[in-house]
UniProtKB/TrEMBL annotation:
The keyword Transmembrane helix does not apply. InterPro entries: Chaperone_TCP-1, Cpn60/GroEL/TCP-1, GroEL-like_apical_dom_sf. Keywords: ATP-binding, Chaperone, Nucleotide-binding. The keyword Metal-binding does not apply. GO terms for molecular function: ATP binding; ATP-dependent protein folding chaperone. Pfam families: Cpn60_TCP1 (PF00118). This is T-complex protein 1 subunit alpha. Gene3D superfamilies: GroEL.
Amino acid sequence: AIQTVKAHQSMPTIVEKAKIACLDFNLNKFRLQLGIQVLVDDPKNLELIRQKECNVLKDRLNKIISAGANVILTRMGIDDTASQYMNASGVLGLRR
């Protein structure tokens, strides 16, 4: 038995003909590595940077889902943005 938690409460509890992706990385918004700073001159650009962080995560999830996975298992974390996107796509996400 695998002890895991659904990433979102409204995700399905039963998946028939499951295609499972086992991941060893986080499904969190992309963050810059420690020590790297981004200087923003215009506050309007800050929202653009945040949107790009979300787009990196969505692109990563799209590649996994387009490969045919409808169940995603990960040892690491799944943040709210990823869980909402998976839920909207009908994918079951399970973490630790």
